[in-house]
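Model the whole thing, not chain by chain.
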Amino acid sequence: MDKILEVKNLRVSFHTYAGEVRAVRGVNFELRRGETLAFVGESGCGKTVTAKSILRLLPPGVAEIKPGSEILYNGEDVLQMDQKRLQKYRGNEVSMIFQDPMTSLNPTMTCGKQIMEALMLHKRLNKQEAKAEAIRMLDLVKIPDPEKRFAAYPHELSGGMRQRVMIAIALSCEPSILIADEPTTALDVTIQAQIIDLLKELKEKLNTAIILVTHDLGVVATLADRIQVMYAGQVLESGSAREIFYQPQHPYTWALLSSVPDLAEHSKQELYSLQGTPPDLIMPLESCPFAARCDYCMQICRQQMPQVTNVSDTHTVACWLQHPSAPKVKPFYERGLSHEQQA
Amino acid sequence: MHEEISKDLFQIIGPEDSEAEKIARPRVSYFQDAWRRFKENKVATLALVVLSVLVFMVIFGPAISGYNYEEINPDHRNQRPSAEHWFGTDNLGRDLFARVWQGGRVSMIIGLSGAFIASFIGCIYGGISGYFGGRVDDIMMRIVEVLISVPYLIVVILLSVVLESKSLGTLLLAMTITGWCGIARIVRGQVLQVKSQEYVLAAQALGVKPWKIILRHVIPNVLSVVIVAITFDIPGYIFSEAFLSFLGLGIQPPETSWGALAATAQSMYAFYPYQLFIPSLMIALTMLCFTLLGDGLRDALDPRQRK
Amino acid sequence: MLKYAIKRIGYAVVTLLIVVTVTFFLMRSIPGDPLSHMARSLPEQTRANYYAKYGLDKPLFTQYLMYMKNLLRGDLGESVLYPGRSVSETIAKTSPVSGLVGGIALAIGFVIGITLGIVAALNKNRWPDYLVMFIAILGTTIPVFVLASLLQYFVSVKLGWLPPSGWGKPRHMVLPIIVLSFGPIASFARYLKSSMLDTLSQDYVLTAQAKGLSQWAVITRHVLRNSMLPIVTILAGRIVGVFTGAFVVERMFGVPGIGFYYISSINNNDYTMILGTTVFYAALFILAQLIVDFVYMLVDPRIRIAPEN
């Protein structure tokens, strides 16, 4: 087993005026060298918060990682690192790219300088070496005419180009993990595909493990080895990409999968749309968080938290339908019924 | 563990009906919410209380003192504060307690009416400019740019020289003639922002008359910004009046204001410091309270801070 | 870029022209004429000579053209009150005094204000923040003349540390500078704090942190520069604030600066002097705004490319 990251019982709260928002409620997962793990879920499900926790980038004072949480990088607890160790860890061992390339680059610093910064810090390169390396990185992320773009300010580049610069910054120090927080959400569809292709290519070339945070199942299908479905700060189902796409077990995963338009099938079936909104994260949850919106909700679902069940070695699901006493149900789309008929 | 659970609990009952889905937190209107947040701000609430006391004294103070603010008493010149004259007397033996509150009337009236007049003009100007946009906006904003590129106090001084009469009305005119520009800019910005919202576009597409759109959609959205701007403007006008009166360009005797009182006392401050400190304290306190109140209102009304 | 600069300068010139014109006609619209106050008692012939000397016997528009022609040569006319004293020379003699005091006050205000702003932003909602904001609020709400009186009373009269007024020695400058720097300290601290908090919440700060930069490097390289940009825009206002604040401060401390003469010319109805000084102040402010705009353009790469907003 080549585990480089292991997260145990991660709980994160935000202290707001209205009360304590429990954004992440006991998330467990692990990441192996070179593998791509995707966090999938609606906005506000805690996937970005989980990702930021790994780099300890949550705003201090507002966000609190609860005691008892553990984030082990090669067995070392990230939450226990001192400032110095943390700075070496960030950017050098684990790095991150963000959703909106329009705002995640410093507008008053040239792109080249922003890449050089990390190189000079972690690789101890001098200015000339760092510049040469930065230009090589720009070339690696397929920015045409890298010498010229090196001196460009972010606003002089298009969104796709900026995201490439972000990737260049993140990969410049050859980190073993790259966290990509919705890397394509803010981009045009055609550009999205290019960025995904680039990530895929670089991942194979550099053997970097990727944590991909997204709500776009198309992106997940192209890139991910494993998938973790999140809802209301919890992991509802996790498994290999094949398992999640072909043998999904959780009604929420079913809903997610069937709300993706399938152009290939030419099906007359109406697109599924999940009713309702996720639960208020201020309230403590003692029962299944998805119960209120679940077509297959049972009495027990509203009373107790479901246990995590192993479907296979790699596939787990937290749902009462896995209980031996539960009725055997199939997702409605497999029975050829539309949502309305089902309800 | 599994065995303990009764089979009855495994009946599929489906999702909750939409009624039950409603978020349990109580709904509060925008202004209720703002008021609650304002009350939580202790500093701003204190400022409001102090201001209320000041306003009360400005209204009833001269009567409470038992003296006429113009009454000259040669036997009681330059007396220190005492039981008889709470704030002492000035070089003509006039009771300062009465004069301070009488002067406060002028300062307060100027501060309040100055800010309201300026906001009124500013709202209309900025609203028109922002609403119509295009060339109208271009021209109207150029005019504002020219007006605010002249130092404000110079304009006020120049006008009070030109207008010669030094009544309250002339002072107000001098101070508001370019004073509205700031609010006009703020309002224009807000209007432009509101205008691009879909519901306003929808109203326009339905052929609703411009003034109706302004009344229904724009003004309510601009209101909170304007309230905050007014609160911040009031101390500005109080300061300008005090500044002018201090230079001898403002309120003329026998009328008085806090600035005028401070100016009179300034020449003798080494001997009768209380004559200077009391009106100065009043100016500073009033300005401070309005500023803190403005801070509190801004924090309370700013929708971005709504959680 | 060049096109923008030319356009911007053009606007400044037009604005100045409007201001001069409006001021000129305003001053001439005063009931009576500039000389009526002093010329009333003079015999008929002397008065006529006076009027001829100042060009007041000609039609108003001719007077305006004459004034503008002289203005182009830098001649603002002669004081009405003190014949023979040139307005331009008075300004040339007194403005360096104001410039020195105001400049030092502004520089001190800038350095202290920025420092306090940084301290407040980095300690948000802790005591240093509250202390700085308290100072800042006092600075914006205590009128200059109140502060000046307080300092004169306590530092000069009670403690006797510094002269209450006068001019000539460096120690005469201390109190005026303190008084004038208080406002800039307050506004720079307030603006920098809010602008810095704004910057700190930007995504690129997160990017910088994710790179592994130390807190210090993140602040100095990424936060500070971006936070300083909005500060440049209030600089013009502060420059004027220092000059207008000087009206009161120079009078109270007996500093022979331009503000001192401006106020006495107003009190003495010295019309040419008022007109000339007003034109000077307006030109100064417009120039300051122009310079600030260009500085902004130099420090913000985004504006260099897209000059139109």
